[in-house]
Task: inverse folding
């Protein structure tokens, strides 16, 4: 069974045409999967569904083969295991210092103080932000903020990491750093799922590509197959 799966999922925002019209996708454990498509294709909507933040109007989402349950306790557990990094790090940064921000998730999970400290230290080391502990996150560069947001998710040790447009609004050097980070996460055994409108990036980075347009899936498979005739 795939680790995460959407089966025939549909969704429409209020007073809008369908954002997703019967989409089925499978995310294999340990894969690097890219959802690729133009703006408005439905990528963000699908990602939000895969970690329970949106509930499909019809169809089903499964994690480890089991349909999602939408009670608070199940959602909390799912979101710990399927970490979500928003496109805009500002919506994810909640605390006055980097250290407190990264600690937010593990504190919420009820980890004891020693474990929180360790999780924060490890996560900041991972994203290359040791020494930034006392800095106010809102004064950092775009690339640094992105890495703070990633560290905050990593501190909860999710098995799956979902990134909505991980490199949008970043300069080329910061984009490269973030993609290298995603590679390291994947080679450490985590499942990594990204959305992007950047075909080149998907081609270079992903081992599995899902091509979306207008709320539907156009093609899926290895990057060489999917992009051979597009
Ligand atoms: P993508 O991530 O591929 O850019 P989205 O999932 O954000 O696509 O959007 C899919 C469709 O749903 C688009 O037509 C978009 O305008 C619409 N949409 C997204 N979010 C909302 C919202 N909060 N309210 C109304 N329509 C939305
Ligand atoms: P993305 O590529 O992440 O979808 P968008 O510009 O499509 O970027 O959307 C940015 C934010 O605006 C998202 O939170 C999305 O839900 C919301 N949004 C997108 N389209 C609409 C819309 N037509 N009406 C209201 N909100 C929207």
Result:
């Amino acid at each position: 069974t795939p680790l995460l799966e959407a089966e025939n999922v549909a969704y429409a925002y209020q007073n809008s045409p369908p954002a997703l019209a019967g989409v089925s996708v499978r995310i294999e454990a340990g894969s690097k999967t890219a959802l690729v498509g133009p703006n408005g294709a439905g990528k963000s909507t699908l990602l939000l569904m895969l970690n329970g933040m949106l509930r499909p109007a019809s169809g089903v989402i499964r994690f480890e083969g089991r349909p999602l349950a939408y009670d608070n306790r199940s959602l909390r557990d799912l979101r710990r295991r399927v970490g979500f990094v928003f496109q805009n790090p500002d919506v994810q940064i909640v605390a006055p210092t980097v250290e407190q921000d990264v600690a937010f998730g593990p504190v919420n999970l009820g980890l004891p103080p020693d474990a929180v400290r360790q999780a924060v230290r490890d996560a900041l080391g991972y994203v290359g932000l040791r020494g930034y502990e006392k800095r106010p996150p809102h004064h950092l560069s775009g690339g640094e903020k992105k890495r703070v947001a990633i560290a905050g998710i990593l501190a909860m040790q999710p098995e799956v990491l979902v990134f909505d447009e991980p490199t949008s609004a970043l300069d080329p050097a910061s984009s490269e750093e973030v993609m290298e980070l995603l590679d390291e996460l994947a080679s450490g055994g985590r499942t990594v799922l990204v959305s992007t409108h950047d075909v080149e990036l998907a081609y270079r980075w992903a081992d599995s590509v899902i091509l979306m347009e207008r709320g539907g899936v156009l093609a899926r498979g290895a990057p060489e197959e999917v992009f051979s005739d597009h």
Remarks:
- The CA atoms of residues 124 and 130 lie 5 Å apart.
- The two ends are 29 Å apart (CA to CA).
- The chain has a mean pLDDT of 95.
- The pocket of adenosine-5'-diphosphate (ligand 2) is lined by residues 39, 44, 87, 164-165 (CB under 6 Å).
